[in-house]
Amino acid sequence: MSNLSFLSKLIEKAALYRLNHHANQHNLLPKNQSAYRKKHSCESALLRLVHDLLNAMEHQEVTALIAIDLSAAFDTDDHEILLDVVQQQYGVRDKALCWINSYLNERTCVVSVNSSLSNPRPLECSVPQGSCL
Predict the structure, then answer these.
(1) What is the CA 121 to chain-centroid distance, rounded?
(2) How many CB atoms lie within 10 A of CB 92?
(3) Contact 109/120 with Cβ under 8 angstroms?
(4) Which of the 8 DSSP states describes residue 50?
(5) Whose CA, among 58, 62, 96, 130, lies 20 to 30 Å from 76?
(6) Is the pLDDT of residue 2 over 70?
(7) Closest to 44 measured CA to CA, from 33, 30, 54
């Protein structure tokens, strides 16, 4: 787990505000996405799912549900793919893209067991935990 300082979290919050404003201004987020949006949550996603399933049953439509456990999804985010998506799909460029690149890259991790630390290892994927971004 990455322990982020208060200042890091404050800067991230400002960046998140700007990115959300950009995404909302240009309608870049999918209509039914509940994650990372104001006034949306797991509860609102479940309510939408139940509503859609009951509506389909009422109209005697065949429905299918696929459930995927994404609890460790952020541990496998490839930085290059993420940067490409941010640039191509969300139009983030220049200094903002460089900032996101510096935020993701050149990170290291260590493991602590009984007060002993491992040697630092580079993180080639994943995003910082405890981050609002």
Answers:
(1) 23
(2) 20
(3) yes
(4) H
(5) 96
(6) no
(7) 33
Separation between Cα atoms, residue 54 and residue 61, nearest integer Å: 10
DSSP state of 37: S
Q: How far apart are CA 75 and CA 12, in angstroms?
A: 19
Q: Rounded distance, CA 126 to CA 72, Å?
A: 10
The CA-CA-CA angle for residues 122, 127, 129, to 5°, reads 105
Q: How many Cβ atoms sit within 10 Å of the Cβ of residue 20?
A: 15
Tens digits of residue pLDDT in 59-97: 999 988 888 877 777 777 888 898 999 999 889 999 999
Q: Reply yes or no on whether the pLDDT at 56 is more than 90.
A: yes
pLDDT confidence bin for 20, thresholds 50/70/90: confident
Lookup: tokens for 25: 């201004």
